[in-house]
Amino acid sequence: MMTSTPSVSPGRVNSPDGGTDRAEVDFRDLEQIRPPVGIKSWQSSDDRFLHPTVQIAPVDSVKRLGTGRPGWFVENVHAPIGRRVELQFQGPVHLLAMYNEGGRRDGETSIDGFAPSKIRNVAKKLTFVPAGCGYREWLETAASTRLTFLYLDPTVLRNDGGDDYAARIHFEDSGVWETATKLKSAIENGQAKRTLYLSALSSVLAIELSRCYDNAARDTALNRGGLACWQKRAVVGYIEEHLGEQICLSTLAQLARLSQHHFCRAFKQSFGVPPHHYHVQRRIEQAKLLLADRSISITDIGFTLGYSQTSSFSVAFRKNTGWTPSEYRREFK
């Protein structure tokens, strides 16, 4: 759970043994973020100032708490439901964003040189921003949303393969997630003698990141029976943007540049269900997020997600969850 503490200026604070290896800061009331411990800000070749931590606007729209030591820094960010938040980052360190929980009614995430992502269900997704790359995101929260930002100096997250890390937006990888969670916990524990452990975890994380990049690069060649990565991104992105609308199979097939017959077969191979079932499942997942907000009526939620009658929404919700919308909402008391 996110806990708030009196706001202080970021900087070194004495550790229990009298050293200065750890900093703990509450960023909520700061208008400008200063460099966390051990991470220096710098200027790019075109004289732009590159901020060492994610800029968030409005400043009071979230609660954020950070702690770290030289080379490693972690921030926990909480955005309540119904907030519009803008995030921006470009710095001398690698950034790994972990979307622990929540979702967005609307929003977009982009990294320089890559197609933006507009998916709404961001829970358990990861975004990796290599040092020096520009990252921007805006979102309207559909539920209480919690993120973790891991800032890793390139000297501690080394790629022994020699190639630069590639940016990735909203990807899923259990290995990366598990290792990053361990690294987060180790940074937050803050014992002065845990540098070797942090270094070991960082090495594992570097391997996991390289592995998932290699898997993604091979995806098109290996997934001959399913959709290629670019096809999945295009189709899923379109479905996410049109959850409350009827979606024509021909439109999805055109996005994937396939015949309808070939597209249906490839889609089921990739996602395990036909396109229509996937669309319904995503509607129901969005409905779960909206049901957490008691200011929205169940009827309005159904209309928002494309159901013309409350009864049809209730039938679809119960078929997929085993609960009626009213029963599910009561669980939030």
From TrEMBL:
Stretches assigned to the HTH araC/xylS-type domain: 233-331
UniProt xrefs under Pfam families: HTH_18 (PF12833)
Gene3D superfamilies linked: Homeodomain-like
Keyword Glycosyltransferase belongs to the record: no
SMART domains assigned: HTH_ARAC
InterPro entries cross-referenced by the UniProt entry: AraC_XylS_family_regulators, Homeodomain-like_sf, HTH_AraC, HTH_AraC-typ_CS, Tscrpt_reg_AraC-type_HTH
Region annotated Disordered, chain positions: 1-22
Record's keyword terms, sorted: DNA-binding, Transcription, Transcription regulation
Entry-linked SUPFAM superfamilies: Homeodomain-like
Superkingdom of source: Bacteria
Name of this protein: AraC family transcriptional regulator
Protein's organism: Bradyrhizobium erythrophlei
